Amino acid sequence: MHSEACIGQKKSVYEGTNAVPRSGDPGRVLHLGLTDGELANRVIVVGHHTRADLLSGFLEAEDSGSVFKLASDRGFLTYTGQFAGERLSVVSIGMGLAMMDFFLREARAVVKGPMAVVRLGTCGCLQEHVKVGNVSVADGSALVQRNYSHFDSQSPAHAKPYTISELCLPDAELTSTVIAALREALGGEKVNEGTNLTADSFYSSQGRADSAFNDENSQLIGEVLDRYPKAITMEMETFQLFHLARSCLPKGTMRAAACVVNVANRPTGEVVGEEALRLAESEGGKALMKALAKLQL
Ligand code: R1P
Ligand code: URA
């Protein structure tokens, strides 16, 4: 018999399967790959590695003499260092509700004490007057989900193809600090505030047309705007961040805020240029790091 198949003779690949499992010694959480103390209480969370690399350039070395860096084999990339006298991490988590869930739960498991998390993402913008390259801060977020039951031919006719949730709110103080820092860094005309919509797909639940699938979404953006006329941004993680921060126990120990660079104006079809995007990411990101460092935790 091949040795890998000898169930019962090998140490388990991880422990604690009914809670937040860890593997190795020291125990590392399964998906972020981090162990206790490697992540700071103040975190900027972004969607891709290039943005994390960019912002990690603003971090200064820890006492060890370098900025901590760890790439997990599940796609998470963590940097931890010093910024304006505080310990701060920048983490790239990839995309979607599930990745934000992995991140916040496993981050909570390896960090002691109160946390503050700010997302710097990108989005499609639903309002014609909001310019691409601007940064929009969420004053609330609603979740737009594909209703899988609707697409099952056995389901009752009244089940709608998409569900739209109630609003979930961010931390008010952190959000005001973020807005002030962004305005100072980018100028007031480049910073918008409004409702965020988090979708469970880049495609169907964001109202994109794709003739290769039955999506029944041609009316979706209109329905969402009827319900939330102040909605300006549509992306894929903010609701989960706000929801889990509010669900975190003890209450108030995880504070959250979120903003996104508008990369595409959905009504006009305009898409941001490379240079404007990098500028918003780097100057906006630095402003968020200042806001996080300033926050009394
Ligand atoms: C889709 O292209 C991705 O871009 C947006 C969405 O939320 C989704 O994750 O944000 P990020 O640029 O932060 O990944
Ligand atoms: N990210 C999204 O989720 N949607 C967009 O339209 C652009 C970026």
Automatic annotation (TrEMBL):
Residues 43-272 form the Nucleoside phosphorylase domain. It comes from the Eukaryota. InterPro entries: Nucleoside_phosphorylase_d (IPR000845), Nucleoside_phosphorylase_sf (IPR035994). This is Nucleoside phosphorylase domain-containing protein. The lineage of its organism: Eukaryota, Sar, Alveolata, Dinophyceae, Suessiales.
